[in-house]
Write a structure and sequence with these properties.
- The complex is a heterodimer.
- By secondary structure, chain A is mostly beta strands.
- Helices cover 11% and strands 36% of the residues of chain A.
- Chain A is globular.
- The longest helix of chain A is centred in the N-terminal third of the chain and has 7 residues.
- The chains are: A mainly beta, B alpha/beta.
Chain lengths: 66, 265
């Protein structure tokens, strides 16, 4: 299936959870937050959230700012 | 007695939604030449709260956690910088809360790329939503009394008027607006956000009755950020003291300080 992660197209196996996506992307799970189709997904729900074709995922962290 | 002295609050600390801060300086984390330089500036400033921005994680490279360079003692204030709509600002605030477990947010909804002036209408809309969702909202906005009143009515924990465009270092462009805001809203927590360029600007903001000053570029782009951070710390303390002390009335002509009598002839 095809999803969009931070605007970039990504091919994933069917039945991939949000937690598995984070693992595949090799991202540190701390101090990041995830939005799935414009709604925040709580960290505790990452494991149980299965992705669907055409899902739009935003993964954010923190950078310097004023 | 001057109006400034009458309006001066006896409170010694900066209070935001019941949270007390000994330092009235809030500083940014952007634009430093290195994380080390940022850290030494933070230490020198005595600030207890720092702003950070929320951005997409780069997927093509491992990114070291910038937050590791912040002292754990610092209160982190995420901002919604870069957002041009209330909706994007609300989404950004929600993401920040989820990642940092803090309900504080510096609300910033920009209306124009060149000036980075706020879109007050979108800011107000976002403020209303975020307050309803339990956020402690600190909004950046134009130095306008009526907008300040609307933001406070919406439940914002403080008002953060700009002094000049973000990153411009122009200093306080409209002191009268800040003074009017202070006098008309004596109970509001007013933090001057953006436009300060050097220590005297920060002192003036405080002398006008601000409860605090938020700055980034003035420190980060100084030749020696740590020294400038110290200067800002002292300026804010001096300005606050001067405000509480109540300045003398201005007069057009001289008034001798030495007795007029007894001068030798």
């Amino acid at each position: 299936m095809r999803v969009f992660v931070n605007g970039d197209e990504k091919d994933l196996n069917a039945r991939t959870s949000l937690a598995e996506l984070i693992e595949q992307l090799d991202l540190p799970a701390v101090r990041i937050a995830i939005e799935l189709n414009r709604e925040v997904v709580r960290r505790s729900d990452w494991g149980g959230t299965m992705l669907k074709d055409e899902d739009r995922i935003e993964i954010v962290h923190f950078v310097g700012g004023g | 007695m001057s109006t400034a002295a009458t309006a001066a609050s006896p409170k010694e600390k900066l209070i935001i939604a019941g949270r007390e801060f000994s330092s009235r300086l809030i500083i940014g984390t952007g634009k430093y030449r290195s994380y080390e330089q940022m850290r030494s500036a933070h230490e020198a400033s005595g600030a207890e709260m720092v702003t950070v921005a929320v951005r997409r994680v780069p997927l093509d490279r491992s990114s070291e956690s910038f937050l590791d360079y912040l002292s754990p003692a610092l209160q982190i204030l995420p901002n919604t910088a870069g957002c041009y709509t209330a909706e994007d600002a609300v989404r950004t605030a929600r993401l920040a809360r989820e990642a940092l477990q803090t309900d504080l947010v510096k609300l910033e909804v920009i209306g124009d790329q060149t000036t980075l002036f706020p879109d007050n209408e979108q800011t107000l809309e976002a403020a209303r939503i975020l307050v309803k969702e339990g956020f402690v909202v600190l909004p950046y906005f134009n130095d306008d009394l009526i907008m300040a009143k609307k933001l406070l009515d919406a439940g914002c924990a403080a008002i953060m008027p700009l002094a000049a465009p973000i990153g411009s270092g122009l200093g306080i462009q409209n002191p009268a607006n800040l003074r009017i805001m202070r006098e008309q809203l004596p109970d509001a927590t007013m933090i001057v956000d953006a436009g300060v360029g050097t220590a005297s600007d920060a002192a003036i903001a405080m002398e006008l009755g601000a409860d605090g000053v938020l700055m980034n570029t003035a420190i980060a782009e100084a030749e020696d950020p740590a020294k400038m951070a110290t200067a800002m710390k002292l300026a804010i303390e001096a300005g606050r003291l001067a405000y509480v002390a109540g300045r003398m009335a201005k007069r057009l002509y001289a008034s001798a300080s030495s007795p007029l009598q007894g001068v030798i002839r």
